[in-house]
Structure formats: structure tokens, C-alpha cells
Amino acid sequence: YRFRINRLHAEKLERIVFKRTKQLEEMNEGLTWLANHDSLTRLPNRNQVHQKMSQFDANCILGIIVIDLDYFKSVNDQHGHAAGDLALQAFADMLALLVHKNQIACRWGGEEFLIICPNISKARLVALVQQVLDHCRQLQVEISEHQTIQLKCSIGCAMTPAPPQKQLRWEKTIQLADMALYDAKHSGRDRAIAYLWHTQTHNKQNINWVLANTEQAFKDKILEKLVLAVIA
Hints:
The protein has eight helices and eight strands, in the order ααβααββαβββαβααβ. The strands form two sheets. It has a six-stranded mixed sheet. By secondary structure, it is an alpha+beta fold. It starts with a helix and ends with a strand. The longest helix is centred in the N-terminal third of the chain and has 35 residues, at 2-36.
């Protein structure tokens, strides 16, 4: 009889331990998800981008697209932060639908988003940038029952040289895309600018020199600038 009680007690304890272990596993999964995703838009965050980048092969050609929502502060000021959150979520959902399975769309911070495109051609990168630009203009964000707002964005993009330079870091290509974004914003916004390597001259200077001497890089035909506007 005592043996039967002990066995029942052991089975009960085993069920409790199993249930608790399952709960801890689910909690850990939740914490891991939160550490790697933006809680508002549910897109990957910077932390996950850093992890993914370390997994790419050294010879992988990367296209980097940096997107900033134009005049986003006025959305918060005029309609409130709840409306701003809805706009960010709607834009993030749009990006998630546009990117391919092997590409990463993430919230980089504030109203800035990033798309990482591994092993992409120049033509496909430019086509994706044009898609983002056009879909953004068509996006109507419903912030109340009778009110919608329209978003606009500025985009900068760049690619790692092909073949990749020995000491090239992907962060440098993001810097180059950021410079293109700055150019787009100061050229009137609501447009995209790509800083792309000339095929025949991409390996004549390293990216550190190009970042410090961008205008000279254009003059020397090391870089070319491509301006994209919204297709009406």
C-alpha cells in the first residue's frame, strides 16, 4: 500500500515537473523572440540583423536598403502617438509582404527600416526599391473610422562590391546607404537614391576611402548615383 502511494506521488511530481519545464521552455522562447524582434511591428530588430549577418558567407553580395518615413513627427504631432504606431505597423506589414524569403526586413529604429538582400543583382535591388517606394505611396493607413493618412518615404540603398573586398564589413555598406538616404531627403524626399559601384572600377578604392571621399568617387566613376521617383 505504501509503495502504491509513493508511486502515485512520484507520478504526480513527474507531471508537475513536466508542466513546469514546458512553461519554462515557452517563457524562454518568448524571451528569445522579444530579444530578436520589435514588439510594435513584429519585424526583426537590430539584434537579429547582427546575428544573421554573421551567418552570411564572406563572398555573399549584399544589397542594403535604408528607408525613413518622411515627416513622421508631424503624424505623431497632428494625430497622436497611437496613430503613429498604426502607421508604423501598416508600413511594416507592407514591407513583410514585399520582401522575399531570403531577405530580411527589420525595424532599424524609430521610423527607420532596413532591408538586407543577400546575393541580389543590381537590377533586382533597384526593382525592389521601386516597389517599396510605389507601395508606400499607395498605402492608406486607417487611424480612425473616418480618417486615413498617407505615408511617404525616402530611401537610400547601396551594395557591397563584387567581388567583396577583403576587409569589407556590412556596416560600411549601411553607412553608404545612409549617405544615399541623406541625399534623398535633401533632394526633396519622397524618392530613392542608390549609390552603386561601377562594374569596371568597383575594386580600385576600398569602401573606407569612398565613404570619406564620396563626391570624388562619383567624379572618378567609382560610384554611380541612381535616382528613383514614384511611378505615377
